[in-house]
Amino acid sequence: MPPSPPPLIDTHCHLAFSAFDEDRSEVLNRAREAGLVSCVAVAVDAQSARQALALAKAEPGFVYATAGIHPTEEAVADPAEFPLVRELLESKQFVAVGETGLDAYHECAPLDIQRDALIQHLNLALQCDLPVVLHCRDAFPELLAALESYRGEGLRGVLHCFTGGHSEREALLSLGLHIGVGGIATYKPNSDLREVVREIPDERLLIETDAPWLSPVPMRGRRNEPAFVAHVASRLSEERQQPLATLAKQCTANAQALFRF
After folding, report:
1. Which of 54, 64, 83, 183 is the residue whose CA sits 20 to 30 A from 89?
2. In whole angstroms, how far apart are CA 248 and each of 69, 225, 229?
3. What local confidence, expressed as pLDDT, does residue 6 receive?
C-alpha cells in the first residue's frame, strides 16, 4: 500500500460558496484522500456564515465555520448586518471571527467604514474568546495601526493569504498573530514572498487555499479546492528545507491550537 499522506488542515477556504454546489461531496472526498483532517469554511457575511455553519453541522469534526463580514462585501456598510453576525457568534458554534480586515485595492466601502467594521470584529473576537481571520490588500499600514491598539490584550488570529514583506511579517509576529500562506507563494514570480515566508517561525505558520480562488502550482487555471493545500505544503517544505511530514504535523498542530478544534 502507498504511504498515507501527512495530516493537513486547510485553514481558509470558502467551501459553502456556490462554486462547490454541484460537486461539494466529491470535493470533500478528495480533501480526505489528500490527507486533510479538517477545513475551516470562512464566511464573508451573515448569510454565508449560516451556510458555513450548515456545512459544518453536516460534516462534524471535519468542517468548521467562521462568521464575519469581508471588507469588500456590501454588507460591511450595512448597519443591520453586524448584529446578525454578533448573534451568530454568540451561539458558540463558530471557531473564529471573520473574515474581516481592510482592502484598498477593490472598489468597495471607504477605508474608514472598513476600519469601523474591523474594530467591531476585533472587539467581538476578544469578547467571545475567538481568533480573528484577517484580510489585507494594499492596506498594511492601516491594518497594523488598527491592530497595534490591541497589543497586549490577548488578541489572537491569523492574517490569511500573506503577501507582505519582512517588516510586515515581523509586525504581525510581534502582535502574536499567525500567518497564513497559500497558493500565491507557489507562483514563479513570487520569489521575494517565498524568501519572507521561509522565516516565519514554525509555530506561527498556517497553510490554506482560499478556495475557490488562487489555485497553487501546479493547479493554476483550475478552480481551487481544499485538497490542493497539499501542493502549498509541498512547496513550503522545499523552501523551508523541512520534511513534508514535519511541516504538515506542525501546521496542523498550529491550526488546532489556534482554532481550538
Report:
1. 183
2. 30, 18, 10
3. 87
Cell of 36: 486533510
Q: Show Cβ contacts of residue 184 under 8 Å, excluding neighbours closer than 6 positions.
A: 161, 163, 190, 193, 214
Query: What would the DSSP string read from start to end of 188-229?
Result: TT-HHHHHHHTTS-GGGEEE---TTS-PPTTSTTS---GGGH
Nearest-angstrom CA–CA distance, 223 and 233: 18
- Residue at 90: amino acid letter: E
Spatial separation of the C-alpha atoms in residues 66 and 22, rounded to whole Å:
22
Q: Max CA-CA distance within the chain?
A: 56
Say if residue 232's pLDDT is above 70.
yes
Instruction: With both helix axes pointing from N to C terminus, report the angle between 111-128 and 140-148 in degrees, rounded to the nearest 10.
Output: 40
Q: Which domains does the chain have, with CATH numbers?
A: 8-259 (3.20.20.140)
Quote the pTM value: 0.97
Q: Is the pLDDT of residue 1 over 50?
A: no
- In single-letter form, the type of residue at position 184 comes to I
